[in-house]
Amino acid sequence: MSEQPLLQVRDLVTRFHTPRGVVRAVDGVSFDVHAGETVALVGESGSGKSVTAMSVLDMVRRPGRIESGQVLFKGRDLLTLNEPEMREVRGAGIGMIFQDPMSTLNPLMRIRDQIIEGVRGLSRHQARDRAVEVMTQVGIPDPEARLRDYPHAYSGGMRQRVMIAMALANRPDLIIADEPTTALDVTVQAQILDLLATLGRELGTAVVLITHNLGVVARLCDRAMVMYGGRIVERAPVDELFTAPQHPYTAGLLAATPRLDAGRDVRLVPIEGRPPDLIAKSTGCAYAPRCPAAEDRCRTETPLLGPGERAAACLLPGPFTNADAGTDSAPDTRAAGEVSHARLPLAFDSEPLLEVRAISKHFAVRRGWGRNKGSVRAVDDVSLTIAPGETLGLVGESGCGKSTLGKVVLGIHPATSGEVRYDGTTLTKASLRTVRRGVQMVFQDPYSSLDPRMTVGALLREPLQVNDIARGEKADARVAELLELVGLGSEAGSRYPHEFSGGQRQRIAIARALAVDPRVVVCDEPVSALDVSLQAQIVNLLRELQERLGLAYLFIAHDLAVVRHLSHRIAVMYLGRIVEMGPADEITRSPLHPYTASLLSAVPEPDPRVEHTRERIILTGDLPSPLNPPAACRFHGRCPIGPTRFPERSICATTTPPLAEHSPGRTVACHFPGELTIAGTTSTSSRPQEIHA
């Protein structure tokens, strides 16, 4: 690390002038970044992370403005430059990777033209060569051909690689990455993190990573800065931040983060309350209203962030432990005599409540003039069961058919073949209305699934009236009961969805699903877009509702740590088929299918010691197209132990492995089950090892 920082931010203040008042989005932020290091900015949504990044690049637009401070890049204050001078810095000196590549890339321009457009100081021919070079650098196969494609022809992971290629095109000294892996599958996320790590190691590029995923911070970063209420409240080397956090907010974020090695008996501890209103003037510590350790002076004295590499803006600094955050002593709020399913041995010997029997769902793809191009085999011969009170987690990469299967279960998509049975009744058009009262769905994005023109009370009354369950005063009483059930007061019924936070909107969506007294709830990525604290609230709520009401869940997600925390059993899906199924603790402890082992290996754990020593399986390439899936084992082209690496294993490319019982309660579709686990998915060496498929 060089003595002179590459980037120095000093007392940066950015505010937004709105009709409601002045929003103090960034309020006196200072930090340094040295050449070749990776620094994280972490915190909940609304803490000021992204606005800080936009301020560094002087890209804040009205009604916001940078009111004071310095941004020194190589000793030059960027805030004193005019717009033409700043354009020379953006891209050439500091590159930016945005969160959503599809909304950033121009859908009407070829990728080649978008990269060349931003290259400085080269002829067009040289710029084309540079475009090929950076596309190769970020691991996109056949770059010369792919440069001619438009953004829609790329997968999500490949589009994010294009964004990184564009940021690298001018060989910048610093890259600011704003949530670059939030919407990606764990396997693609692992590829992107591996690529960002390579930039610092081989090219000497400094990276400022903005994220709320603490596992990503543990895997990739050297130092971390925790933001809250527009200010940095703690900064430290990553190892020290995770092992001994000095600010209670940092400890709260760690306690709310699910871990693969924690079972269902370990309760997540969300941070109570909401982030501060950045418009309202406050005295004292902004975190005091949510802090379990706050004293009277914390509400009147403002703590300052001291100098040095290790500092915390807290009047009562730690170090804090998980016990201080409450993970070892979470209160049991159940009434006397109420049973906790999570703390009893679960056998689920009763008859299945939901049965999926050999379900297939194919979508016809037509080229034009009615000509059939083929069929997308979204779900292909899938069978599973869910017992009363059980949670079955369904995991896999985007495009594997998880959400389609959930919609087939609800009758939203009619099955191409096979049958769905609920409580002994086969799902047909005639029985669909009755079955839908018993099976409900919670969607990924509550804001798009709730009518913004209706009050919360009207949203909850609607299913009661449509299904002739209650009207008038009875419906009002049921609405109040539902709101109390999901932790919202009855007064919430008079408000509109936009008046609630993301976590509260998801609670409303859950209340709407429970309005008709279902016995099965299909949860389709219900927490993937939430901060860790809101995620912990929703996960805990789902578990509490299951214990109180005996609900069964089909929980669809790609975050295996969350699935592990909530599920009794896990089913792993790849390209339309189930490849492994079994008890959650056994699946995560000793996976049998190499795809399951690859998914588990890709999950970043919020523990730097684990991340620095574990062996990783890096899957290369994207999920094959379901329009033309590989023959035999559909995973064989990406398999770390398959015929790509071991040609003698041609059986994987010629014979389809059946989904067969491997041991009591465990099934797997693999010719060589358990071999990758036997080879070792953990390592005791001082540096992480990688297996590239």
From TrEMBL:
The keyword rRNA processing does not apply. Signal peptide: none annotated. One of its GO terms (molecular function) is ATP binding. The keyword Transmembrane helix does not apply. Pfam families: ABC_tran, oligo_HPY. Residues 7-254, 354-600 form the ABC transporter domain. Keywords: ATP-binding, Nucleotide-binding, Transport. InterPro entries: AAA+_ATPase (IPR003593), ABC_transp_ATP-bind (IPR050319), ABC_transporter-like_ATP-bd (IPR003439), ABC_transporter-like_CS (IPR017871), Oligopep_ABC_C (IPR013563), P-loop_NTPase (IPR027417). GO terms for biological process: peptide transport; transmembrane transport. SUPFAM superfamilies: P-loop containing nucleoside triphosphate hydrolases. Belongs to the ABC transporter superfamily. This is ABC transporter domain-containing protein. It comes from Embleya scabrispora.
